UniProtKB/TrEMBL annotation:
SUPFAM superfamilies linked: Alkaline phosphatase-like
Higher taxonomy: Bacteria, Bacillati, Actinomycetota, Actinomycetes, Propionibacteriales
Pfam families: Phosphodiest
GO terms, molecular function: hydrolase activity
InterPro entries: Alkaline_phosphatase_core_sf, Phosphodiest/P_Trfase
Name of the protein described by the UniProt record: Type I phosphodiesterase / nucleotide pyrophosphatase
Length: 378
């Protein structure tokens, strides 16, 4: 198991109950593969539908159970975990490849393109980066197809063929669905095949949390709509098909007074010393250092941030098991120094990431609200 985590952080449960364990566990449950090394066990079924709700952390679902009576009724006190960082691009790729972040190489919202001073934005994707080269491993969806399983993704049309889709979900059939009714109908159609795996995604709760915060009435209303969507999906599926509802991460609200802007605040002037590039995201920063500056950068960030964040060198973070086993190609994509926020703290760069500075809800760090995800079976 991973080393003990500081400051109430949750260690990623790689190989036990993490996002990377979901597809292998489904393979066993539908009889496509023998029991493997994953510690996750799911009920047997003819087929599975996996409904991923972006941003619906297990702690949030417990806290706001009144707004989601159907989904909260499925809580069993045994959540899974996201990987590190707890962010969409990393999590979706862990699910689709059955690999840890250190294996698949999507190590955050933004990360350095090795040999350059440019960042890969894993959601928008850089046109000059080939997703098949960035993530060359066989996906879990491809592996399932080779075993005779019918694998289908039901998602918005705009995501088909995107860099992140190619990196994380290649090998699956695609059903374009921009509306709830289309998604449900597509999932029912795809799961009619025996020995099938159907994956559908809803990003509206995450968008609402980023825009308004998880303490907002808008977020609670959206959670209620997700709950109704999930229950309607369950009712539309035949009894032989299991529904598994999961999330990619949770979220916290970060008020303005809990943020430090590296581009504006007087105390941050020293934080740029020795830095070649600032990456990651507000709750989990990758710091890429100039030659020989790693120790000084780590010391400065520790001094300035104090108890507001855990600051580790790359080697220290790897030693704590944050990214799982790290392949040589992935190593330089990780920050020389990484910064994981505590509480509701966030490191903002209003010049480098202006859109991020406008968000209310954030995620990426290792707090329980961000890391713990539901694994709900019906």
């Amino acid at each position: 198991m991973n080393a003990a985590q500081p400051n109430g952080f949750v260690a990623p449960a790689y190989g036990v109950r993490s996002l990377g364990d979901v597809v292998p566990a489904i393979g066993v449950a539908i009889g496509a593969t023998p029991a493997g090394p994953t510690g996750l066990t799911l009920p047997d079924a003819a087929s599975y539908v996996v409904f991923l709700v972006d941003g619906m952390g297990a702690r949030l679902l417990e806290r706001y159970a009144h707004a989601a009576p159907y989904l909260s009724s499925l809580l069993d006190g045994r959540p899974g975990t996201a990987g590190v960082p707890s962010t969409t691009a990393t999590s979706l790729t862990s699910l689709g490849t059955a690999l840890t972040p250190g294996g698949h190489g999507i190590v955050g919202y933004t990360s350095r393109i090795p040999g350059t001073d440019h960042l890969l934005n894993a959601l928008q994707w850089n046109k000059d980066v080939d997703p098949h080269e960035w993530q060359p491993n066989q996906t879990a969806f491809q592996a399932m197809r080779r075993l005779g399983v019918t694998v289908t993704v039901v998602n918005k049309r705009e995501f088909q063929g995107s860099g992140l889709t190619e990196a994380s979900q290649r090998g699956a059939d695609w059903i374009g669905a921009d509306r709830v009714g289309e998604r449900i109908a597509g999932a029912v159609l795809a799961s009619s095949e025996r020995c099938s795996l159907t994956y559908l995604y809803d990003g509206d709760l995450d968008w609402t949390g980023h825009r308004y915060g998880i303490a907002s009435s808008q977020w609670l209303q959206q959670l209620s709509m997700i709950d109704a969507e999930a229950e309607q999906l369950r009712e539309a599926l035949p009894p032989s098909v299991r529904l598994l509802v999961i999330a990619d991460h949770g979220m916290i609200d970060s008020p303005t007074e809990s943020r430090l802007d590296v581009d504006e605040h007087p105390e941050t002037s020293s934080l740029r010393d020795g830095l070649a590039l600032l990456g990651g995201e507000a709750r989990f920063r990758h710091l890429y250092c100039r030659g020989g500056a790693v120790d000084d950068v780590a010391a400065t960030w520790r001094q300035v941030l104090g108890d507001r964040a855990t600051v580790l060198t790359r080697e220290e973070a790897i030693g704590r098991g944050w990214f799982g086993p790290v392949s040589p190609a992935v190593l330089p994509r990780l920050g020389d120094v990484v910064v994981a926020a505590h509480g509701d703290f966030a490191v903002i760069s209003s010049a480098g990431f202006p859109y991020e500075a406008m968000l209310v809800g954030l995620h990426g760090s290792l707090t329980p609200d961000e890391m713990l995800i539901p694994l709900l079976v019906d």
